[in-house]
Amino acid sequence: MRRREQGTQKRPGNPTQYAPEDRPEPVQLYFNRELSWIEFNARVLAQAMRSDVPLLERLRFLCIVSSNFDEFFMVRVATLKRQVQLGNYVRCPSGLSPVGQLREIEKRVRALDDHAYHTLEATILPELKRSGIVLAKRPEYTAAQKRFLGELFENEVFPVLTPVRCTGDMPLPYTANLTLSVAFLLESESGTSDLDELAKTAGGAQGDFDASHPDRSSGERVAVVQIPQSLERVVRIPEESAEAAFALLEDVIVTFAEQLFPGFRVREHLLFRVTRDADIGVDEERDEDFVEAMERVLEHRERSAAIRLSTTGTSEWLEAYLMGALGLEASEVYHKSEPLDLDSLSALVDVPGFADLRYEPRKPANSPDFPDDEPIWESIMKSDALLYHPYESFAPVVRLLQSAADDPGVLAIKMTLYRTGGSAAIIGALERAAQNGKQVTAVVELKARFDEQRNIEWAERLERAGVILVYGVARLKVHSKALLIVRREERGLRRYVHLSTGNYNDRTAKLYTDMGYFTCRDDISYETGLFFNALTGYSEIPTLSRLAMAPVAMKERLVHLIERESMRASNEGDGLILAKMNSLADPEIVDALYAASCSGVDIALNVRGICMLVPGVSDLSERIGVVSIVGRYLEHARAFYFLNGGNEEVYLSSADWMPRNLERRVELMFPVENERLKQRVKEALELQFQDTSHAYELLSDGRYVARTGRADEVPFNSQEALFERVYALAREDRRGLGSSFEVRRKPPAPGASRGGGA
After folding, report:
1. Which pLDDT score is estimated for 147?
2. pLDDT lower than 70: segments of the chain
3. Which CATH architecture does the domain made up of 376-536 adopt?
4. Which long-range contacts (CB under 8 A, 24 or more apart) does 496-499 make?
5. Fold adopted by 35-131
6. What is the enclosing helix (H) or strand (E) of 285?
7. Which residues are catalytic?
């Protein structure tokens, strides 16, 4: 679709003339990617502000926001800053330059930081105190607590700390990425010299100090103490009036800091934390060992350029000193309350007891498609199967691998691994299979950002067990989730396949919503074999008809499916697309959706995070509605439905609709053709568009508003409804009976206003 100015064309090919003075302003065709991602975190923050969310879960949402922004600055902001430094002023699709994006990011992030700390201090901590959990601040320590902490400091903290003096040639000691430290401005009590002063007297190099340092003649010094990561950040302390009381380790260190500097008193202190550039790639053209190259990347990440300085305290002098040492400007300094990184409070979230302050535990249902008394091979041979996590247990995936490891008929196992989290069950099954003589191949993606070190460690463990390891693909990330098992049976070899929208990680399968598909169909299993051969050997990119593989064919297939829906709507007057994903940021896909809307296709999108598409614009996207669900579970599944003139098609995928997924990653999209499973996916998609509890609707001006029902209705929580449905299916305990989700309300017309407050 040709990009155009809104108003100069009511439909493609149907121009409307305007006099120059009457020409409308160009309509924004794309929201900014970075600002859209920030608004996702605003929705996560909104969960922390909801009174109907359990208190410790609200604190967990605050921790998630803090952690998300750390990654955002390390990757996205770092990239923008590099573009500015290199003079790369190519505008993004939304029209903002890198400088403009940085300006808008700073403004919005500061506002959300203020909201987050206000929520913590004004609501969550007081309510926790009333519920028996106290986070004590330094001025609030009782005499008994101070004695307890003094002994703790002397016996367990003091021996671990390393105060480092700051000198002219070394104004700041090594500060690792995201490591919390304390800077101290010290004043000599007696005027006696320390070792640094003796070096100056002796004419050593350390005697040369620039004007940015304190007044050396009066005995002022600067020192930095790094908060050890080997110690617990949240320390339990005695408290008679509460069931559980805690202090922050940094507060303990500041309270007793003068013991670190005999002969000096602490005049000022400042807690600080440096965020560094983590968007560093490995040079895949070099001949040396790839694992070794990745390890060097991890080392460099810890010492890369500073992107953000976060501080807590009132010392303007120390803040200016740190800015100068790090080469940062005022716009790159973020003043915060305590704790400096909210993610550290996750220790409070997980404090034993206090079940009434958390979500009621939900045990995943056992799928009736996998009876315990039936070999898993027979279950898959009977019919294709689908698991929807976390509503259904991840156990059949583990069981499939464990059965394959021990079954004498299994000859080979091939698997992609992106983020397993070092799952003992998954890794253990692959190890055992290799030790049992199976040919086991693991395609391990070492470039999975922030999981690189963990992936290296368990990849080496697999290699020791005899697993054939392939470390991804040069210049691409292998993000697909695929498992292929070759088994010898009476009638010959049969291949069993599991394809998924999410990682092979039994921990996140309890927290993320994902769909996994099992089959032994010849066409799917054959093409999955071709896919693995392309990853592990020398092979031309395979031509696949059932599967779609990125970066070679998936975008083309998606655009074709959207355009086919447009043609059917133009010719037959009926078209419908339902799609669920994490992010929508590919301009070509967005343009195809705009054209489909103009052709009469109704489009309902469930996009959890980034959405660059502008919905609800007359003569452009008026038939497109976008919702985002942010609830107890992280919405992670990618599922797409096309009406196709009544010949419905359903697909699942590992890929979001983003350039990085469709052009720079190895991804898979696969069809769901079993009618029972197809209807199940479709109706699950429809069900989430009914949510009036945790759904937010994207408006054409970029705002998200909470979707609400009538005042006399109980808010409809789609995640809870999905749990209820899979429990019902498990109770029925036989395949094919009641195998679709009940849709409780008619889906709203895409793009229609549903109301609700912000």
Report:
1. 95
2. 1-27, 88-91, 191-219, 280-303, 420-423, 446-456, 474, 538-539, 732-758
3. 2-Layer Sandwich (3.30)
4. 496/377, 496/380, 496/400, 496/520, 496/525, 497/521, 497/524, 497/525, 497/528, 498/397, 498/400, 499/524, 499/528, 499/652, 499/668, 499/670
5. Methane Monooxygenase Hydroxylase; Chain G, domain 1 (1.20.58)
6. none
7. 479
